[in-house]
TrEMBL record, chain A:
CC annotations in GO: cytosol; phenylalanine-tRNA ligase complex
Similarity remark: Belongs to the class-II aminoacyl-tRNA synthetase family. Phe-tRNA synthetase alpha subunit type 2 subfamily.
SUPFAM superfamilies: Class II aaRS and biotin synthetases, Winged helix' DNA-binding domain
GO molecular function, one term: phenylalanine-tRNA ligase activity
Primary localisation category: cytoplasm
GO biological process: phenylalanyl-tRNA aminoacylation; protein heterotetramerization
Localization of this protein: Cytoplasm
Enzyme Commission no: 6.1.1.20
One Pfam family named in its UniProt record: tRNA-synt_2d
Subunit structure and binding partners: Heterotetramer; dimer of two heterodimers formed by FARSA and FARSB.
Name of the molecule in the record: Phenylalanine--tRNA ligase alpha subunit
Top-rank taxon, per record: Eukaryota
UniProtKB/TrEMBL annotation, chain B:
Assigned EC number: 6.1.1.20
Lineage, top ranks: Eukaryota, Metazoa, Chordata, Craniata, Vertebrata
GO molecular function list: ATP binding; magnesium ion binding; phenylalanine-tRNA ligase activity; RNA binding
Compartments, as annotated in UniProt: Cytoplasm
Lineage top rank: taxon: Eukaryota
UniProt domain B5: residue ranges: 211-288
GO cellular component: phenylalanine-tRNA ligase complex
Protein name (record): Phenylalanine--tRNA ligase beta subunit
Keywords carried by this UniProt record: Aminoacyl-tRNA synthetase, ATP-binding, Cytoplasm, Ligase, Magnesium, Metal-binding, Nucleotide-binding, Protein biosynthesis
Coiled-coil ranges (or none): none
Organism for this UniProt entry: Ursus americanus (American black bear)
A Pfam family of this chain: tRNA_synthFbeta
Swiss-Prot/TrEMBL cofactor(s): Mg(2+)
Family of this protein: Belongs to the phenylalanyl-tRNA synthetase beta subunit family. Type 2 subfamily.
GO BP terms: phenylalanyl-tRNA aminoacylation
C-alpha cells in the first residue's frame, strides 16, 4: 500500500503543502474514501521517518437520514403549508398526508395556518400567510454543504433535538514531512532471494523491518495426547526403578480373579451391580484353575493359613461371573499366581498402567472408565517401612518430596496406608495414592512361600494429569468430547519440573 | 500393670433376674430367613444424642455388613410394651398379616407401603413372609422390611429387646455383638448385656449374645519384621493394649498373648494385629528403608511397540485421541452398516445408558465421534489412536480378549485416500515390513463392505494374514456419525507385528 497511488499522491501534495495537510481534506479533494488515505498514511509511517502523522479528532455536523430527506423535500411544516389550497383543507384529510401530523403542529406554532373549528363539514385548515420561508430546509442545506458553522448554536441544537442533525467525531491525521521525507518511495524488499544472494544486490536494497511481536507459523505437526504423555512418564519411572511390566490385556475379567483371589468376600458391597459392570455375554468365565479355586474357597468359607476366614458359604457360580475389571489388581493377582508356580521363588517387581471400569455416579471428575497405576514388590521379609521407602523414591521422581501416611482399609491389604503429599498451590495435604501389604489369605493359597511379603500401591493416572495440566472437567481430557486445541497446545510432560503459570481459570 | 488412662470395657453377658426372653423360630421360617439371634439391653438410659446414634448405627450396619438387609435385618423393640415372652419368629402368607408399621397410623397390609417396597424385593418371591409376634399376637416386626410401631423405641425406653434375623449366621452374631457392645455402655449395669435364648426348629437352643473373647498368640519378632521396627516384646504388648487389644508377654519372652474383644470381629489373621501395632506406633514414625530387591526391568513387548509407534504417528502429522472403550451397540454396528451379532462384541448386563451397552470392537467410532465434537477445528483433521478393542474368544479363560489396534482417520474437503495409504506405507516401513507379496511383506487388495465407499476399500495383508482394512468411508457412515466432510480411515491389529 505504501507504493500505492494514494500514498504517492499524498507525498506529492505534502511536498507542495505548507506545514502539512489534513487527511480528511485530502480525501475530499482527491475524491477518495477517507479510509484509503488513512491506510496510505499508516503504511508510509511503517517505512520509517518519511512522514510524521498526528492523530486528530474533529467534530463535524452531519444530517441524519430524516434530515437529508427534509433538505431535499422541505420541512414537514412547509409541505403541510403547500398542500393547503385557497379554499382550505379538511383537517381530517390533512392529517392523512405523510407530513400531516408532525407538520401541522409546527405550522400552527409558526402561525402559518389556522383552524376553523366551526366549518360545516368538520374543522378546516386555512393558510394564514401567502407564502413562507422554509428556514429549516435552508439550514439543513447549509450543513449539507459543509457550512454548519454558519448556523448559530441555538439553531443547531434545535435541529439536533428534532433528530435532523448529529455530531460526528472524525479522526483524521495531520500529516507533515518527516526527517527522511522523499516523494519517491522505493519498493521495500520483503525477503532475501537466491538471485539477490548470487548477484549481491541485497546490499543495495532496503528491507522491510520485521515485526518481532507477531507469531511465527506453527509447524504442521502431529500431537500426543496429554494423558498418554503422562502415562509414558510413569512407565519410564517404573522402568528406571527396575519394575517389570505386567500383561493387562484383558478388560474382561472373572469375579474370581477380580475379587475372590484377592480375598474380597462375595457379599462385599463392591460386588454389587451398582459399582461393577457385569457382563451379559459372555456371562461366565469358561475356565478357572480349579485346585487354586478350591484353596480360595476354603480360605473364604472356613479359614486356614492362619486365618479365621469369613465363614460364609462361598459359591463357585458367583466367582464365575464375568465383569469389566474394577482394578488392575486382578492382573497383579494373575501375575503373582504365575510367579508362585515358578520354583524356587524369585524376588520380583511388577507394574502396570491400564484401563479399569467402575459403574459409579459420574460427575466432573469421575468417568466410568479411567486408568490405574499399580506397583508391586514381592520379596522375603518386606516391611511397612520398605513400602514407605519405595513410595518415597517413586514420588520423588514425580517431584513430590513431602509425604505422610495414614491408616486405611482395603479388603485385600493389611496393613493399609493412604499416601498424602503437600500441594503447594492448594496449601493442603492431598491424597496421592493407596497402598498396603497383601493379606496372607491372598498370597498363601497361590503357593507363595510364607515369608514372602508383597507390598503394593496404586493411584489413578487421570488425577495427577488434571492437576498438572490444569484441567477441571475430566471429559475435556478423556473421551471423544476432548478439546483438540488443548491436545495441540499441551506442553511436554515433565513431572518433576515446576508447574508453569496457570493456563486455565480456576485450575484445580 | 497397664498404663492406660481409660480402662477397656469388659463386656459380660448376664442371665436375667427373672425369666429369660425367648425367641422361637418356626419350621416355615427356617426355609426363608433361617437364622435369628437376640439380646436385651436392660435399664438403659437414652438421651436424644444416644437415641439418634442408636438409630444411625442400625442404618449403617444395614447398609454395610448386612448388605442392605439382605443378609441380616435388625429389629429393636421396647420390651416393656410387649407381653411376656416367648416371641415367635413365624412365616405367613402376606394376606394374613396385618400390623401397624413404624411411624404410621392405621393397620396395614404389607404390600402397599412405599417405604416397605424398598426392601420388599428381598422376600417378595417367597410364598410366606417372616413375622415376629409376641405371645399376645402383637407384631414386633416383619423382617427385613420394617418394625412395628407398637414396640417402637423412644428416648424413654428403658429395656430394649434386639433381634437380628437373616440368612448369614456369622454376620447376624457379629451385628448383634456390635450393637450391644456399643450401647451397653448406657445400661445401669455398665457393659453388661442380658442374655436371650433362641430356639431353632430342631429343638436346639442357643444363648445370645456370644460376646466371645478370644486369645491369640503372636510372636513379637513377627510384628517387628512386618512393620519394620525394633521394639521389645513388652513395648509391643503396650502398643497393642493401647489399641484395646489387651496383651502381655508370655512363654519364652518372645510370645505375646493378645485378648481380642467381641468388638473386633475384623481381626481374623495375625496381619490384622500387625496393623494395629503399626497404628499405635505411628506410621509416620516408621523408618523408611529401601528393599534390597535387585531386579532388571522388562517392558511388555506389546506396550513397547505401542510407545514406539505412537511417537512416529505424531511425527507423521497425526494427533492422538483417547476414546472410551464402552459404547452403544449402534456405534459399532448400525452406524457402520453391520449387524451386531457379526461383531462378536461383548455385552454388558443392565447398562444404565446406551453408552455402556457394549465394549468396542473397533476404534473407528471413537475417532469419528471425536471429530464430530471438534467440528470448529481447522481442516484437515488427522487423528489416530493405538489402543485395545475387545471381542469374544472362547479360547481364553474368561471367554473374551483384547486386541491392540491402530486406527487413523483423515477428515477434509477431499477424502485423502492417498494420505491414509501413505500413512500405512510409512507404518510398514517403520515396522520393517517390505511391500510385496513375498514372505514377510505386505500388500493391499481391493475389498468391499458397508463401512467403506464401494471401489475405495482395501484389505491389508501382512506376514501372511489379514491385519486390517483401509479406505474412503461410506457416506452413510459419515452422516450417521453427524459428520459432513469426506473421510478416509485405516485400522489394523498390530499384534502380528510383535
Amino acid at each position: 500500500m505504501a507504493d500505492g497511488p494514494v500514498a504517492e499522491v499524498l507525498l506529492r501534495h505534502l511536498e507542495a503543502a505548507d506545514g502539512g495537510l489534513d487527511s480528511a481534506e485530502l480525501a475530499a479533494k482527491l475524491g477518495v474514501d477517507h479510509q484509503a488515505v488513512v491506510g496510505a498514511v499508516k503504511s508510509l509511517q511503517a517505512l520509517g521517518e518519511i512522514i510524521e502523522a498526528e492523530l486528530r479528532s474533529t467534530k463535524r455536523w452531519e444530517l441524519t437520514a430524516e434530515g437529508e430527506e427534509m433538505a431535499r423535500e422541505g420541512s414537514h411544516e412547509a409541505r403541510v403549508f403547500h398542500s393547503i389550497p385557497q379554499e382550505g383543507l379538511a383537517q381530517s384529510e390533512l392529517m392523512r398526508l405523510p407530513s400531516g401530523k408532525v407538520g401541522f403542529s409546527k405550522a400552527m406554532s409558526n402561525k402559518w395556518i389556522r383552524v376553523d373549528k366551526s366549518a360545516a363539514d368538520g374543522p378546516r385548515v386555512f393558510r394564514v400567510v401567502d407564502r413562507v420561508e422554509d428556514e429549516v430546509q435552508r439550514r439543513l442545506q447549509l450543513v449539507q454543504g459543509g457550512q454548519a458553522e454558519k448556523l448559530g448554536e441555538k439553531e443547531r441544537s434545535e435541529l439536533r433535538k428534532r433528530k435532523l442533525l448529529t455530531e460526528v467525531t472524525l479522526k483524521t491525521y495531520w500529516v507533515s514531512k518527516g526527517s527522511a521525507f522523499s516523494t519517491s518511495i522505493s519498493k521495500q524488499e520483503t525477503e532475501l532471494s537466491p538471485e539477490m544472494i548470487s548477484s549481491g544486490s541485497w546490499r543495495d536494497r532496503p528491507f522491510k523491518p520485521y515485526n518481532f511481536l507477531a507469531h511465527g507459523v506453527l509447524p504442521d505437526s502431529g500431537h500426543l495426547h496429554p494423558l498418554l504423555k503422562v502415562r509414558t512418564q510413569f512407565r519410564q519411572i517404573f522402568l528406571e526403578m527396575g519394575f517389570t511390566e505386567m500383561p493387562t490385556d484383558n478388560f474382561i475379567e472373572s469375579s474370581f480373579w477380580n475379587f475372590d483371589a484377592l480375598f474380597q468376600p462375595q457379599q462385599h458391597p463392591a460386588r454389587d451391580q451398582h459399582d461393577t459392570f457385569f457382563l451379559r455375554d459372555p456371562a461366565e468365565a469358561l475356565q478357572l484353575p480349579m485346585d487354586y479355586v478350591h484353596r480360595v474357597k476354603r480360605t473364604h468359607s472356613q479359614g486356614g493359613y492362619g486365618s479365621q476366614g469369613y465363614k460364609y458359604p462361598w459359591k463357585l457360580e458367583e466367582a464365575r461371573k464375568n465383569l469389566l475389571r474394577t482394578h488392575t489388581t486382578s492382573a497383579t493377582a494373575r501375575a503373582l499366581y504365575r510367579l508362585a508356580q515358578k520354583k524356587p521363588f524369585t524376588p520380583t517387581k511388577y507394574f502396570s498402567i491400564d484401563r479399569v471400569f467402575r459403574n459409579e455416579t459420574l460427575d466432573a471428575t469421575h468417568l466410568a472408565e479411567f486408568h490405574q497405576i499399580e506397583g508391586v514388590v514381592a520379596d522375603h521379609g518386606l516391611t511397612l517401612g520398605h513400602l514407605m521407602g519405595v513410595l518415597r523414591q517413586f514420588f520423588t521422581k514425580l517431584g513430590i518430596t513431602q509425604l505422610r501416611f495414614k491408616p486405611a482399609y482395603n479388603p485385600y491389604t493389611e496393613p493399609s496406608m493412604e499416601v498424602f503429599s503437600y500441594h503447594q498451590g492448594l496449601k493442603k495435604w492431598v491424597e496421592v495414592g493407596n497402598s498396603g501389604l497383601f493379606r496372607p489369605e491372598m498370597l498363601l493359597p497361590m503357593g507363595l512361600p510364607e515369608n514372602v511379603s508383597v507390598i503394593a500401591w496404586g493411584l489413578s493416572l487421570e488425577r495427577p494429569t488434571m492437576i498438572k495440566y490444569g484441567i477441571n472437567n475430566i471429559r475435556e481430557l478423556v473421551g471423544h468430547k476432548v478439546n483438540l486445541q488443548m491436545v495441540y497446545d499441551s506442553p511436554l510432560c515433565r513431572l518433576d519440573a515446576e508447574p508453569g503459570p496457570p493456563r486455565t481459570q480456576g485450575a484445580v | 500393670k497397664s498404663d492406660l488412662l481409660i480402662k477397656p470395657p469388659v463386656y459380660k453377658r448376664v442371665m436375667p433376674n427373672g425369666e429369660i426372653q425367648k425367641l422361637i423360630i418356626t419350621e416355615e421360617t427356617a426355609k426363608i430367613r433361617p437364622y435369628a439371634v437376640a439380646a436385651v439391653l436392660r435399664n438403659i438410659k437414652f438421651t436424644k444424642d444416644r437415641y439418634d446414634s442408636f438409630i444411625e448405627l442400625q442404618e449403617k450396619l444395614h447398609q454395610n455388613i448386612c448388605r442392605k438387609r439382605t443378609l441380616v435385618a435388625i429389629g429393636t423393640h421396647d420390651l416393656d410394651t410387649l407381653s411376656v415372652s416367648p416371641f415367635t419368629y413365624h412365616s405367613q402368607a402376606p394376606s394374613d398379616i396385618k400390623f401397624k408399621p413404624l411411624n404410621k397410623q392405621g393397620v396395614y397390609s404389607c404390600t402397599t407401603d412405599n417405604h416397605l417396597k424398598h426392601y420388599l424385593h428381598i422376600i417378595e418371591n417367597k410364598p410366606l413372609y417372616p413375622v415376629i409376634y409376641d405371645s399376645n399376637g402383637v407384631i414386633l416386626s416383619m423382617p427385613p422390611v420394617i418394625n412395628g410401631s407398637h414396640s417402637k423405641i423412644t428416648v424413654n425406653t428403658r429395656n430394649v429387646f434386639i433381634e437380628c434375623t437373616g440368612t448369614d449366621f456369622t454376620k447376624a452374631k457379629i451385628v448383634l455383638d456390635v450393637i450391644v457392645t456399643m450401647f451397653s455402655e448406657y445400661c445401669e449395669n455398665q457393659f453388661t448385656v442380658e442374655a436371650a435364648e433362641v430356639v431353632f426348629p430342631n429343638g436346639k437352643s442357643y444363648t445370645f449374645p456370644e460376646l466371645a473373647y478370644r486369645k491369640e498368640i503372636v510372636r513379637a519378632d513377627l510384628i517387628n519384621k512386618k512393620v519394620g521396627i525394633r521394639e521389645t516384646p513388652e513395648n509391643i504388648a503396650k502398643l497393642l493394649t493401647r489399641m484395646y487389644l489387651k496383651s502381655e508377654v508370655i512363654g519364652d519372652g518372645n510370645q505375646i498373648e493378645i485378648e481380642i474383644p467381641p468388638t473386633r470381629s475384623d481381626i481374623i489373621h495375625a496381619c490384622d494385629i500387625v496393623e494395629d501395632a503399626a497404628i499405635a506406633y505411628g506410621y509416620n514414625n516408621i523408618q523408611m528403608t529401601l528393599p534390597k530387591t535387585y531386579t532388571i526391568a522388562n517392558q511388555l513387548p506389546l506396550n513397547k511397540l505401542t510407545e514406539l509407534l505412537r511417537h512416529d504417528m505424531a511425527a507423521a502429522g497425526f494427533t492422538e485421541a483417547l476414546t472410551f472403550a464402552l459404547c452403544s451397540q449402534e456405534d459399532i454396528a448400525d452406524k457402520l452398516g453391520l449387524d451386531i451379532s457379526a461383531t462378536k462384541a461383548v455385552h454388558i448386563s443392565n447398562p444404565k445408558t446406551a453408552e455402556f451397552q457394549v465394549a468396542r470392537t473397533t476404534l473407528l467410532p471413537g475417532l469419528l465421534k471425536t471429530i464430530a465434537a471438534n467440528r470448529k477445528m481447522p481442516l484437515p483433521l488427522k487423528l489416530f489412536e493405538i489402543s485395545d478393542i475387545v471381542v469374544k474368544d472362547s479360547s481364553r479363560d474368561v471367554g473374551a480378549r483384547n486386541y491392540r489396534h491402530l486406527c487413523a482417520v483423515y477428515y477434509n474437503k477431499n477424502p485423502g485416500f492417498e494420505i491414509i495409504h501413505g500413512l500405512l506405507d510409512r507404518i510398514m516401513q517403520l515396522l520393517n515390513v517390505p511391500p510385496g507379496e513375498k514372505k514377510g511383506g505386505y500388500v493391499i487388495k481391493a475389498s468391499e463392505g458397508p463401512v467403506f465407499f464401494p471401489g475405495r476399500c482395501a484389505e491389508i495383508f501382512a506376514r501372511g494374514q489379514s491385519v486390517g482394512k483401509l479406505g474412503v468411508l461410506h457416506p452413510d457412515v459419515i452422516t450417521k456419525f453427524e459428520l459432513t466432510m469426506p473421510c478416509s480411515s485405516l485400522e489394523i491389529n498390530i499384534e502380528p507385528f510383535l
